[in-house]
Amino acid sequence: MAQTLEQRVYNFSAGPAGLPLPVLERAREEFLVYPGAGASVMEISHRSKAFAAIHEKAKANIKALLNIPDNYKILFLQGGATLQFSMLAQNFLKGTGKSADYIITGSWGNKALNEAKKEGETRVVWNGKDDNYVRVPKQDELDLDANAAYCHFTSNETIQGVEFQTEPDTGNVPLMCDSSSDFLARPIDITKYALLYAGAQKNIGPAGVAVAILRDDMLERVPEGQPSLMDYKLMSEKDSLYNTPPCFAIYIISLTTDWIINDIGGLAKMEALNREKAKVLYDTIDGSGGYYRGHAQADSRSIMNVTWRLGSEDLEKAFVAEAEANGLATLKGHRSVGGIRASIYNAMTLEGVQALSEFMKAFQQKNG
Ligand code: PMP
């Protein structure tokens, strides 16, 4: 059956998530023969000139978008964000005699913590569990250890839909961030971070690659004897090419970052668009007279994952099914928290969000 554009739904998937249509179209154009390479990106050596240019472009684009100074490395690693949970603890906690601070604002922070516990001492310096992860902490609530090996936080909790507006201030303690679900969604001051990493499959590409941005003084701390692929120092020295990298995923990142730069106009504009989209949904929730109940507190609301509940699980089921039938796909909340979740990453259009808002209003009218 011929696949047509009309068959594409508004995709609210949490990840792997929708990619910008112009990116998919360009990948389609270049799919059989990458210009000048005589073959598909999937069919050429990772040491070829053509792939080297793709790799350089992906790095240069990320560097330009985030204004990354020269003393940072940009790495493309495998094992997703989950392997970063272990890798950063193996490289920067294990054997240091120090403990690592973890700020827990939801499910992914807990997963990061659990992997770190396998490598060394950890301390939870703030935990949102008691109020069901509805907010991020204020700076003065953090019980920070001035001697910690590092402090880790999750800038956006994909499942709960809570997001830091600005990063915590950890003084001289290296700040490490899982930015999987809000990477390149807004400008950040990268110089505040020792390490920031993200699985690609939400905002910038397909599954199979994680981006890690690492300040190079941290490399001196990497102990000898790491497994090669989990050694930031070796991976930096080899420019992510110790072994075969996920070439096609890196290629798509080069296109997605091109799209942010050329079509959107940079991260400030990306943020403005993301805020506009999020506002449409939060306004709909807030204007529903309590029919829709947002999960996150207003000051911690995510601009990437909007989460809310209805009056009963039956209504939530009906909402998801009816939305699906109307071309609004994958709105079911994560199985661990229930409710509804609309993931509206960079690639989601304003039009898609407006269609969801209209559907919400109509659903309330019919069932309210
Ligand atoms: N951290 C966050 C914030 C995530 O949303 C996810 C994926 N949903 C992960 C980590 C895990 O990523 P991966 O599947 O790439 O290991």
The tally of domains stands at 2
What global shape is seen?
globular
Helix content: 25-40%
Number of strands: 14
Strand content: 15-25%
- Rg, Å, rounded: 21 Å
How far the N terminus sits from the C terminus, by CA atoms, comes to 40 Å
Q: From the coordinates shown, what is the CATH architecture of the largest domain?
A: 3-Layer(aba) Sandwich
Question: What is the H level of CATH, i.e. the homologous superfamily of the largest domain?
Answer: Type I PLP-dependent aspartate aminotransferase-like (Major domain)
Oligomerization state: single chain
- Name of the top-level CATH class of the largest domain: Alpha Beta
Keywords for this entry:
single chain; 368 residues; alpha/beta; Aspartate Aminotransferase, domain 1; 2 domains; 7-stranded mixed β-sheet; 3-stranded antiparallel β-sheet; 9 helices; binds 4'-deoxy-4'-aminopyridoxal-5'-phosphate
How does this structure look, described?
The model has no long low-confidence stretch (mean pLDDT 97). The chain has 9 helices and 14 strands. The strands form 4 sheets. Strands 2-10-9-8-5-3-4 form a 7-stranded mixed sheet, with helices on both faces. It has a 3-stranded antiparallel sheet with strand order 11-12-14. With 368 residues, the protein is of the alpha/beta class. It has 2 domains: 27-262, Type I PLP-dependent aspartate aminotransferase-like (Major domain) (Aspartate Aminotransferase, domain 2), CATH 3.40.640.10; 267-367, Aspartate Aminotransferase, domain 1. α2 crosses α6 and α3 (80-92) packs across α4 (107-117). The chain starts with 9 loop residues before the first strand and ends with a helix. Helix content is 34%, strand content 15%. Bound molecules: 4'-deoxy-4'-aminopyridoxal-5'-phosphate. 4'-deoxy-4'-aminopyridoxal-5'-phosphate (PMP) binds next to α3. 4'-deoxy-4'-aminopyridoxal-5'-phosphate (PMP) is lined by residues 15, 80-82, 108, 154, 158, 178, 180-181, 199.
